[in-house]
Amino acid sequence: MTHSYTAIAILSSIFSSIAWIFQGMAVHELSPLVVAAAQGLLSGAIFFSFSRLSGRSVSRALIQQNLKSLLALTVLRQVIVGTLLNFAQLYSSSIKIIFFTKLEPYFVLFWAWLLAGERISRQHFLLLMIHVSGAVLLSTGADLHLGQAQFGDLLVVAGLTISSFSYIRAKKLSQDLGAATVNGVTGFLGGTILLPFAIATAPSTAWSLSSPGWGHLLTLVILFNIFGLTMWYYALGHLDSWLVSALRAVGPLAAAPVAWFFFGQTLSTMQIFGGFLVLITSAALARGRAT
Q: CA 232 to CA 36: how far, in whole Å?
């Protein structure tokens, strides 16, 4: 049974990684806050509609019992992390962000060390050093000149730091409420919170439904919120947090060729080398932790 949960975690990573491509296109067409707000509201509406049609009503009592945790998760993942990662798309390419997000297992390990007093072995520390070196190469391509792209990368790192912190809370909520309920409730609440800011800051053209950005946004919601994120919450309810995070290293192997072949996004040779260092060390961490 563990193998099926592992497969779900891997599929979650593949769907989520491909979704980054469409998120980038949607952000450039509509604006970061419009994408963040609309993504949450649309995904929440889809989940609530599905629950009603399938007869699986959301337990209001359970939601009220876990409301504090749901609100905290909403603010962390949907509002703060969602805003940071959408703005990162303005400065950094989607194909680079796909690889960059695989830094997450080490942030999960960092929080385990900081909050739970878990020791970091020499082997893991060495992997971390190689991992960070790969991330630097991926970001700069060995050119240490800092520009807008590196600012976008720093936004991704900030988002991952907060996202990894939410793993413990997300795991418990998935076990108590179910993956779909957590996904739908936090998405809808996050979209509701961000909507006034999106309306106040976005240009009027962003709200035109004839914009191709809305098609990209719908694809993003289907790939990420409906499939990728639901599978992530489900896997998180049955597997260790560090393993779910580490398995996300598989995603770029499927998404990067899609970004290159269909959308012409490329990386330099040094950036590709850095990206593979990120993936290899993430896989090594997963193997070491499993052992």
A: 19
Using CA atoms, how far residue 241 sits from 100, 108, 238, 245, in Å, is 19, 8, 9, 6
DSSP 166-234: THHHHHHHHHHH-HHHHHHHHHHHHHHHHHHHHHHHS-GGGG-TTSHHHHHHHHHIIIIIIIIIHHHHH
127-184 pLDDT, tens digit each: 777 767 777 777 666 565 566 778 888 898 899 889 888 877 787 888 888 877 888 8
Which amino acid would we find at residue 234? Y
3-state secondary structure of 144: coil
> In the numeric block, which tokens belong to residue 181?
């309920």
Query: Which whole-number Å values give the CA distances from 161 to 80, 107, 133, 158, in the listed order?
Result: 11, 6, 18, 5
| pLDDT tens-digit series, residues 172-220 | 888 888 877 888 889 999 999 999 999 999 888 888 888 999 999 999 9
Q: Is 27 exposed, middle or buried (0-12, 13-18, 19+ CB in 10 A)?
A: buried
